[in-house]
Amino acid sequence: MNYIIEMFSHEFMQKALIGGVLVSLCASLLGVSLVLKRYSMIGDGLSHVGFGALAIASAANIAYITPVEFAIPIVVVAAFFLLRISENGKLKGDAAIAVISTSALAIGITVASMTTGMNTDINSYLFGSIIALTDKDLILSIVLSAVVLVMFVLFYNKIFAVTFDESFAKATGIRANVYNMIIALLTALTIVVGMKMMGSMLITSLIIFPALTSMRVCHRFKTVILFSAVISVVCFVTGLIMSYVYSTPTGAGIVIVNLCAFLIFALIGSISDKISAKNNIK
Amino acid sequence: MEELLKCENLSFSYENTGVIKGLSFSVCRGDYLCIVGENGSGKSTLVKGLLGLKSPAEGRIDRSKSLGKGSIGYLPQQTPAQKDFPASVFEVVLSGRLSSRGLLPFYSSEDKSIARANIERLGIEDLVRRSYRDLSGGQQQRVLLARALCAGKTLLLLDEPVTGLDPIVTEEMYRIIYELNTKEGITIIMVSHDINSAVKYASHMLHLNFENSFFGTTQQYIESPMGRYFFAESNSLIRTEKSE
Question: Is the Cβ pair A173, B92 closer than 8 Å?
Answer without folding.
Answer: no
